[in-house]
Specification:
Layout lengths: L2 H46 L2 E3 L2 E4 L5 H6 L2 H33 L3 H12 L6 H12 L4 H20 L5 H9 L8 H25 L4 H8 L4 H12 L1 H16 L3 H7 L6 H10 L4 H27 L1
Antiparallel strand pairs: 1-2
């Protein structure tokens, strides 16, 4: 009985030592997060309640005007277009990435690493350079329109001379002008899908690779066809990978700036371009900060949905 208080005291002392040791180990990470994440975040939050100075800068008169200004129809349309583009990008990445991940995960182990390497090789190049490559492909004098207005138009002209038919007229007229590809939401979506596709493939691959395919055989023994086996067995059990990949694609697509700026031009503006213009051109730091926090709130909601679906 006399040793019990001593053991309790030793246990408390050991627990305190473990706590201090843990704090010592995580102190560099805490310092980094506090100084380079939390402090700038709080600074931007404080600026969002200020007002724009006469010559730029911030006037510290607290107001909610910046957040109310965000609900102007102009900015709501841009924000709505941004959400549509991000959701479309996520859906295309899922439709293209899940079958690819399934194909890689069901190959023999000796081939999986090679296929994953082939998937990642193009992304060893700088993101900006790859986006410029799409600019060269999609612009009016780019690769696609050069083929469309030169090679294809010339082939149709020769075919019309060789075999005169009424159908050649509309086709020649259509190929005489370049396709309007650059400066559209479609061009932005193409660039975003190309940029974030691996972020969808890799989580789906990790989830499918861990899947027990004997469950599919059991479902087929119960007279389930391939479609029912996929919808009721494979898809639900690989849903964590799908949800993780969707979040990893949706969040950067929602806040994208480089791709919309290069491929969207002045006609297809997304919310990331608006934030950039407020900070760099209009020098309206409070309004840019308010938009950033609204965007951050949407991303936070998406992350919470991810954790909710992941736990279910």
């Amino acid at each position: 009985m006399t040793d019990q208080p001593l053991r309790q005291a030793q246990g408390k002392l050991r627990s305190r030592r473990e706590t201090w040791r843990l704090l010592f180990l995580i102190s560099p990470s805490l310092f980094w997060l506090i100084v380079f994440f939390l402090v700038p975040l709080l600074l931007v939050l404080a600026i969002s309640f200020g007002q724009r100075g006469t010559y730029g800068g911030v006037r510290w008169d607290l107001t909610l005007e910046n957040y109310a200004r965000f609900f102007d129809p102009l900015y709501l349309r841009i924000f709505g277009r941004t959400i549509v583009v991000a959701l479309t990008t996520t859906a295309i990445c899922l439709l293209a990435g899940y079958p690819l991940a399934y194909f890689i995960a069901t190959r023999p182990p000796s081939r999986r690493n090679a296929l994953l390497l082939l998937l990642m090789i193009p992304f060893w190049t700088n993101f900006l350079i790859r986006t410029y490559a799409w600019l060269l492909i999609l612009r009016d004098q780019g690769v696609i329109n050069t083929i469309w207005t030169t090679a294809l138009h010339g082939f149709l002209a020769q075919a019309a001379l060789a075999v005169p038919l009424p159908i050649w007229g509309p086709l020649l007229e259509a190929t005489a002008a370049p396709l309007h590809l650059f400066g559209t939401d479609g061009a932005i979506i193409v660039g975003l899908v190309y940029g974030w596709l691996p972020d969808m493939v890799l989580p789906c691959y990790a989830s499918i690779e861990q899947f027990d395919f004997s469950l599919v055989e059991a479902a087929q023994d119960l007279y389930a066809n391939r479609f029912k086996s996929f919808m009721r067995v494979i898809l639900p059990l690989t849903m964590p990978g799908i949800v993780a990949g969707s979040i990893l694609v949706f969040i950067p697509s929602l806040g994208a700036y480089v791709t919309p700026d290069l491929l969207g031009g002045a006609k297809s503006v997304m919310i990331g371009n608006v934030i950039y213009s407020q900070f760099m051109s209009a020098r309206d730091y409070p309004f840019g900060s308010a938009i950033s926090f609204v965007l951050m709130a949407v991303m936070l909601i998406g992350t919470l949905i991810y954790f909710r679906l992941g736990t279910e």
